[in-house]
Amino acid sequence: MFEWYYLSGILILCGINLMVVMGLSLLTGFTGLFSFGHAGFMAIGAYVSGALATMFHVPFIPAILCGGLAAMLMSFFIGALTLNLKGDYFCIATLGFGEAMRLIFNNVQFLGGARGMTGIPMKSSIVVVYVFVVIGLVFMWFLIKSRHGRNMIAIREEELASQTIGINIFKYKMESLAISALYAGIGGALWAFYLGYINPDIFKLLKSTELTIMVIIGGLGSVTGSVVGTFFLTFIPEIFREFAQWRMVIYGAAVILVMAVRPQGLLGGIEFSPTKIIRWFKNLPERRKAAAAPKSAEGGES
Question: Of 65, 151, 176, 239, which is the most buried if we count CB atoms within 10 A?
């Protein structure tokens, strides 16, 4: 259906989106904080890494890591100002942050301003992107299963009860936001090195909304759901690209259909661990025998 060059481009885009969605899933799905400003953290990662590579000739991998760390440092500042806000106010604050970052980069002429930044080396290959994705998935899996992850889930379920039993609410919210921003910064940096060009308009509110939809469609509180949701919603517009005028209508209809049929998301509350997958394959012969047993019994009776 697709040429490999085109397919590899979609897979790279899936990997970059997944990098950001994993971090957003930690913040939204496991800690219960909805954010519409992650495009801002992506912009920081993209511009910092791009500037380091083009102006200071910093190597590829260190530039990406510096972009992620810059986004994380910004999250400490934003978190200190916003994490004490309750309910929808944090969501609105992050929305304002994302748009503010876009407007700042739009007016900083040192970084290209509204024209954007060009000349970024195009080094984000499919191998590089998925090495980062695998490392990110492994780290996220161990984090969720650790005491820190359990405390974040407790905050999502009942913040007041968590505080009563001694969990430092602000500390774990800040930890979740910082890790989420690190993932978004790395994702933004990988995107910059894939496109070779970045522009403030790439990081509009629409990008933040798209990432949040991927988390929700995949299933809140499921790392596996984030993977499925990202691939599902990244591939749909590409599959229907031939229907240029209707593909985004089909995209929207698919989102509505999933939310109507599975309000908890495609894999809400379901998690596939490496152990579960191995156990499933080991038990496959026994399940086949068990499924075939009633048929043979019926055949014997007749």
Answer: 176
CA distance 140 to 99: 28
Q: Tens of pLDDT along the chain (302 residues)?
A: 567 778 899 999 999 999 999 999 999 989 989 899 999 999 999 999 999 999 999 999 999 999 999 999 999 999 999 998 877 889 899 999 999 999 999 999 999 999 999 999 999 999 999 999 999 999 999 999 999 999 999 999 999 899 999 999 999 999 999 999 999 999 999 999 999 999 999 999 889 988 988 998 888 888 888 998 899 888 887 777 766 666 667 767 777 787 777 777 777 666 666 566 566 566 767 767 777 765 544 555 44
Cα-based distances in Å from 134 to 2, 67, 131, 155, 162? 25, 19, 5, 27, 31
The neighbouring-strand residues paired with 198 are: 117
What is the DSSP code string of the chain? ---HHHHHHHHHHHHHHHHHHHHHHIIIIIT----S-HHHHHHHHHHHHHHHHHHS---HHHHHHHHHHHHHHHHHHHHHHHTT--THHHHHHHHHHHHHHHHHHHH-GGGTGGG-B--------HHHHHHHHHHHHHHHHHHHHSHHHHHHHHHHH-HHHHHHTT--HHHHHHHHHHHHHHHHHHHHHHHHHHHS-B-GGGGSHHHHHHHHHHHHHH-TT-HHHHHHHHHHHHHHHHHTTTSTTTHHHHHHHHHHHHHHH-TT-TTTT----HHHHHHHHHTHHHHHHHHHHHHHHHHHH-
Overall residue count recorded for the chain in this entry:
302
